[in-house]
Structures are given as C-alpha cells and as structure tokens.
Amino acid sequence: MRRIPIEYAREGDILGQTLYNNFGGMLLSKGTILNELIISKLKRHGYYSLYIKDKYTEKNIEEIIKPEMRLRIYELKEEMQGIIRGFDDEKKIDIKGVNKNVMNFNEIIEEIVYETILNKDVLLNLENISVYDDYTLTHSINMMLLSIVIGCDSGFNMYQIKKLAIGCIFHDIGKTFIPIEIINKPEALTDEEFELMKLHTEKGYEFLSNYTDLHAVSRNIALCHHEREDGLGYPRGLKKDEIHIFSKVAAICDVFDALTSDRPYRRALSVHESMEYILACGGGKFSVDLIRTFSNSINIYSKDTLVLLSDGREGVVYEINHGYNTRPKIEIYGEKGRKVTPYTIDLLNKNNILIVKIIHKFSFDIEHSYEEV
Ligand SMILES: [Fe+2]
User: Fold this and answer.
1) How many Å lie between the centroid of ligand 1 and the Cα of residue 191?
2) Residue 226 CA, ligand 1 centroid: distance in Å
C-alpha cells in the first residue's frame, strides 16, 4: 500500500486504507475498487492523496488505531467539547463529567501506548497513520502516536510515556474556546485573528488545570506546545531548559504531522521534505538532541514506497535497515526505463547508489513518470 497524489488514481485502483468521515464513521472501506465517479467525488471533497494497493505493494499495513478505537476517541472528544461548549458563566461546569471523560481517555491511551510500543516498526512506516478526515482529531492521534515513539526512543519510562500521550491528546483542547470561524478559516489568519488563535494554549491549560486532575507535565503540553527553543514561540516566549521535555517532544511531533497531512488549503509535504524542514530547524525552533532522536526514529522512505535510484534503476522499498533510514532494501523492477525480472538490493552495501526521488508509477508503466510527491 502506498500514498499517491489523487491525480495518479485510476479506474480499477484498489483503495488501500479505509477513509473515515468527519464523524468517525466509515466513508469508503479498504478494498473498494475506484472508478472515475468515486475519484472525482473524492477530489470534490478536498482529498489530495489516497492510499492504493497495487501489484508492487501487496502487503497490508496494520492500522494501530483500530476503527472501534478511533470511533471511541471521536465520541470522547465530542463529549468533552460538548461539556465545554455547554459551560457559560451562569452554569457550573460538569466537573464529574470532565473527569470521567479524562479517565476514559486514560484507559484508551493505556491500550494505545502498549499497542504502539509493540508495533513501533509498523508505525514507523508512517503511511498508516495519516488519513484525511476530522483534521484536529486525526492530528491529535497522529501526534500522540509519534510522541509515544519519540518518547520511547528518548528513554522515557512507561509512566512518562502515558503522561506524554494524554497531554498530546488534549494539546489543542483550548481551540474549543476559540471562535470556530477562525479555527476553520482556510486562508491565512489576520494578525488580530492570530492573536486570538494563540490564546488556545492558555485557555486549554486553564481548563485542564481547573477542571481535571491531569498531571502538571501533561497539562503543560497544552500550554507550551508552541514554545520554541529560541524563545520565539508563544504564549510566554520560553527558551531551552525553561520548556519541559514533554512539551518539546509534543512540539516537534505537532509540526511534523501538520506538514505531512493534506489540509483543505494545501497538499501534504512528503515525509522526506518534512524531515528536511525539521532538520533545518536545528538549534532554532527545536533542540538539536531531539532532532537527532527524531530523525533516527522516523523512516524517511516507508515500506512500499516507489523510488528512482541514481543509477537509473526503479524499485520498491521492501525493508528498512533500522538506524540507517536512508539506506533501505529495495526490490528492483526496472533498469533505465526497461522492465526487468524483480531482484533485491540492499543499499546498506551499495554506498555508491543513492535514492534520487520518490515516484508514483514506474516509467515502464506510464509515459509521464517521475513526478515528485
Ligand atoms: Fe496548538
């Protein structure tokens, strides 16, 4: 299974991953055979990319967050937003309801943390976590999954990872207090709107502090996930050691997932491009140590990615060499535009060959071939 830009989707392609609607329900199930009508509908719905299965990428990628779990998270999030929205000055907030909600989230996160750590290698293919639906929800889940992996690779213990994960789920809860027109505005925000948007950090932290018994380090993520190493973040312009390590992990995962997700107003960057962006932030926005952990933990070339090599060969990434994420094992299908009997090479042993770019179709399959993600 691999992600392709929607312009590359063709009649007869098989959908590789279930698509969910804004309410956590199923929109199109995995295995659906695409036709022109479905493709044009998806385009109208604002999809920029799709996951498809083809003869080169037949392996299934497991979904770490099972559909029932995804639905449960959606319900819990709705419940919490409902409590917040129903709260005004004359009415007391339903503290019992809030804490029950947090408790339910804690239970589900416990399960997710174990699943994620067990399936860390699967998750690191990344392609199985980004689906376009309710962006804020999907984004919170993706960011949490990434943070669990980074937390694990940073040597945090299980208790710490759970605190980090629950903090990530609630990191943008403060957005519930910001006018919905600003949250959903597809164009760039005006300065005034941006100032209002920034308040989501303090509002979220205040809410979690006043009405939940979440640990301080988890609440702190809501407050500090937009702080930056160089002091140019918000709301307080904290620097380096003034920012808790959990908030630093949350910040890098927040930015990375936002870059790799399709948004209504822009196409996702590839994992490779997003990683370049993160690396370029070294010493400025994010700490150098954390960037090192992050770039070692995330695979730039996921399993099943089609690639063009510097010697003109084309193939599919079929295995990652852990710790050497730019040097995977490749199954070769073509040489200089000619189809060949498939064979494998290990880039770890071929220092003179580089991956030049990610492609979406092999040149011998179509006329227009090498288009970057
Ligand atoms: Fe945020």
Assistant:
1) 17
2) 6
**Does 199 map to a domain?**
yes
Give the span between the Cα atoms of 79 and 73, in whole angstroms: 10
Structural domain boundaries enclosing 329: 306-359
What residue ranges of the chain have pLDDT lower than 70? 21-25, 57-64, 67, 88-91, 119-137, 264-265, 366-373
- C-alpha of residue 234 to centroid of ligand 1, in Å: 10
Q: Domain for residue 61, yes or no?
A: no
pLDDT value for 167: 94
Question: What distance separates the 2 farthest-apart alpha carbons in the chain?
Answer: 73
Number of separate domains in the chain = 3
For residue 99, the CA-to-ligand 1 centroid distance in Å is 22
Listed residue (324, 230, 208, 332) closest to 286, CA to CA: 230
CA of 129 to the centre of ligand 1 (A): 19
Q: How far is the CA of 340 from the centre of ligand 1 (A)?
A: 49
* Phi, psi at 202, each rounded to 5°: -70, -40
Instruction: Tell me, in angstroms, the distance from the centre of ligand 1 to residue 172's CA.
Output: 5
pLDDT tens digits along 153-177: 888 998 999 999 999 989 998 988 8
Instruction: Look at residue 364 and tell me if it is in a domain.
Output: no
Dist. CA 203–CA 248, nearest whole Å: 19
H runs (alpha helix) in the chain: 36-44, 67-85, 95-118, 120-123, 135-153, 158-169, 180-183, 191-198, 200-211, 216-224, 245-260, 271-280, 288-297
- The model carries a pTM of 0.77
Shared-domain flag, residues 17 and 100 = no
Q: Write down the pLDDT at residue 128.
A: 43
Query: For residues 219 and 202, is the Cβ–Cβ distance under 8 A?
Result: no
- 248 and 112, same structural domain? yes
Q: Which distant-in-sequence residues (6+ apart) come within 8 Å of 50 by Cβ?
A: 3, 4, 6, 9, 13, 15, 16, 34, 42
The answer to whether 345 touches 330, Cβ cutoff 8 Å, is: yes
